[in-house]
Q: What sequence folds into this?
């Protein structure tokens, strides 16, 4: 029965019987609704089929969480040299960020799209992910971000009170707010290591807190030169940089594929539920979720 209340047919009946602006349903309303029901045996089969999809969805959710925890532990060890690949013996060095990143100060090319920076999704298209653009009408003074550049937002968000730092993993140029700092890494692999290093709110806050001045209304006062002034521990061997970057990117690829699978399972279940409960397809023609 619970699945029926999630169908478009049920919502259409609510709208038709009670009006589009109704915000609650009482017992009297609910008891008056007419719900098409299949024979009892088929009801049981429908419940079993939908439960199979629920199991597949929950299994995928748990697998995603497990992969995220594995990646988190891997980052903690690989990015601090607690665990190293045995083929690499070179020392790691405390290196100023200014030796790894260079502010390039390139302005808009007047053809790249405006992107935002998200804690969880990185550098993303505003319209696709936020539903609208928050950019100014004139974007000629916006900063250009090339592939593999890093962006520092200088604005508090959630667990990142001093701002977030993300690498442009898109294979094309974008533009971002002129309030953001944009930096080119000396090589893309070191840039990717920094992307993952600053994925942790603890590491980001520990790096930024000593050099940040908070202004009125919680604004962040920090120059790009000051941002580059502190040091972090990094591998000096280019092959080791590449190996670490590739391993962590492979973790993200796995998580992204699982997220895509999860969305597909949810869509499959929703579409199947609509058709089964309306009798458009019968249980004998349905295969179980994979």
A:
């Amino acid at each position: 029965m619970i699945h029926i209340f999630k169908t478009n047919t049920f919502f259409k009946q609510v709208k038709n019987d009670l009006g589009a602006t109704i915000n609650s349903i009482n017992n009297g309303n609910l008891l008056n609704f007419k719900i098409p029901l299949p024979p009892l045996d088929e009801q049981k089969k429908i419940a079993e089929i939908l439960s199979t999809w629920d199991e597949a969805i929950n299994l995928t959710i748990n697998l995603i969480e497990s992969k995220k925890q594995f990646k988190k532990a891997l980052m903690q060890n690989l990015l601090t040299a607690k665990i190293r690949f045995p083929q690499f013996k070179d020392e790691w060095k405390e290196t100023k960020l200014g030796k790894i990143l260079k502010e390039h100060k390139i302005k808009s090319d007047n053809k790249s799209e405006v992107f935002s920076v998200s804690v969880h999704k990185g550098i993303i298209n505003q319209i696709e992910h936020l539903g609208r653009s928050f950019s100014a009408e004139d974007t000629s003074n916006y900063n250009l971000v090339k592939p593999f550049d890093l962006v520092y937002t200088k604005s508090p968000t959630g667990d990142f009170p001093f701002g977030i730092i993300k690498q442009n993993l898109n294979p094309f140029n974008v533009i971002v707010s002129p309030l953001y700092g944009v930096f080119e890494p000396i090589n893309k692999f070191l840039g990717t290591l920094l992307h993952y290093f600053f994925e942790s709110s603890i590491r980001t806050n520990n790096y930024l807190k000593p050099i940040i001045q908070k202004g009125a209304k919680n604004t962040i006062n920090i120059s790009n030169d000051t941002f580059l002034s502190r040091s972090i521990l990094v591998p000096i061997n280019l092959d080791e940089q590449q190996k670490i970057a590739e391993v962590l990117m492979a973790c993200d690829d796995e998580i992204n594929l699982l997220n895509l699978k999860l969305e597909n399972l949810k869509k499959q279940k929703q579409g199947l539920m609509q058709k089964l409960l309306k009798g458009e397809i019968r249980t004998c023609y349905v295969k179980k979720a994979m």
